[in-house]
Amino acid sequence: MALTIPCQNTNVVSLGDFIEHVSSTVDCKDPESVASVAPMLRALANDRHLVLLALHQQMRDLFSNQRVPTTQVVVLGGGMDFYVRADIWPAAEAAGSPTYREQAAIYNCGTGQSFPCLMTGHFGPGLINDLYAYDPAAIIGYPGEPVPLTFVERVRLSVDQAVMFLPHGEVVHRLPPEKLSISVALMILHEIGDQHMVDMKTATLRDYAPELPSSRRSAMLRLAGLIGDGNTQQLLDDLIVASPCPRTRLAAYEALSKLVPERTTALWERASGDTDALVSHLASHKISGLTNG
Fold it and tell me: Residue 134 — left, alpha, or beta (φ > 0 → left; ψ -120 to 50 → alpha)?
C-alpha cells in the first residue's frame, strides 16, 4: 500500500542540500528510511523555481545538444543510488494532444508498482492516483490475462503531503488532474522487476513497461530474429539455455522460430517444458495454433 505522509510546512531547501542529506543519512534499501525524508522532499518542492531552472537549462542545451528531452520527466539531480525528478501531468483536455502522447498512454492503463518512490506535489492541484491491490505472483504474464483487482484508496499528489509508493502488490491507475500539475519525486535506483501494464477497462494484462530491461532485451531479440544469420542462431540457443529471465527466453524462442522456420514446431515443444509458466503457457498456445492452423 502507499503511505500518505502529511507535510504541511513552508520550509525551503536547495536541491544540493537535499541530495547531500539523502546521500549521507538515508538508507535507500530501507523503505522507512526513505519515507523519513518526506518533510525535506516537501521543502525541496516548496522551491517555486526548482523545475523552472531545470527547464531553462534544458532549453539552453537545445542549442548544443540534438537530444530532445521527454515532455513528461525533468531529471533534477541525484546520488549514487537515487535520483530526483519532476513529472509533468497534463490536464484531461490536454492529454490527447500529440505533445503529451506519453502521458495519455499512462492515463489509459494501470501500472504494477515494482519500485519504491517518494512523491509530492509541486505545481497545480496534483495528480490523482487510484490504488488497487493485486497478487503479482498469481499473474502468468501473457497479454489479455485477467488481473483480479481490489480498489484500496485514492490519493492525490498535493502540496500538503507526500506519498510513499511501495513495490509489489499494487496497481496504480493515474488519472489526469483538473489542471496541469507537476510532482517532485525521490526515485530509488534498484533492479526493476517485471512491471505489469493493466487495461483498467477490462482488468486484463496489456503488456509490460517498455523501459524495463526485459522489454529492451525482448525488442533487441525480435530484431535479431528478423535480420540474423547462423551466428545469431547460436547466440539465441545459448540464451534459451542460460538466461534466468523468462521473457528473454521467450523472445529467443520467437526469434529462432523466425530465423529457422523448419525448427518452429520443435522449438515450441521444447519451450512448453520450460519451468516458467509464462514461457510454457505461450508455447502451448503456439503449438495449438500450429496444430489447428
Answer: beta
As a dihedral over the C-alpha atoms of residue 192, residue 198, residue 200, residue 206, rounded to 10 degrees, the angle is 150
Distance CA 122, CA 1 (A): 23
For residue 239, pLDDT over 90 is answered with: yes
pLDDT band at residue 150 under the 50/70/90 scheme: very high
Write the CB contacts of 159 (distance below 8 Å, at least 6 apart in sequence): 42, 45, 46, 120, 121, 122, 126
Q: Name the strands in the sheet holding 109-112, side by side, starting at the edge strand that comes first in the sequence.
A: 150-156, 128-133, 170-175, 109-112, 196-199, 204-208
Coil, strand or helix: which one is 53?
helix
pLDDT band at 109 (very low <50, low <70, confident <90, very high): confident
Type and span of the H or E element at 170: strand 170-175
Q: How many CA atoms lie within 13 A of 20 on its CB side?
A: 5
CA-CA-CA-CA dihedral for 112, 117, 123, 127, to nearest 10: 20
| pTM of full prediction above 0.85 | no
Beta bridge partners of 3: 164
Residue 117 burial (CB < 10 Å; 0-12/13-18/19+)?
middle
Torsion sign across C-alpha atoms 148, 167, 74, 216: negative
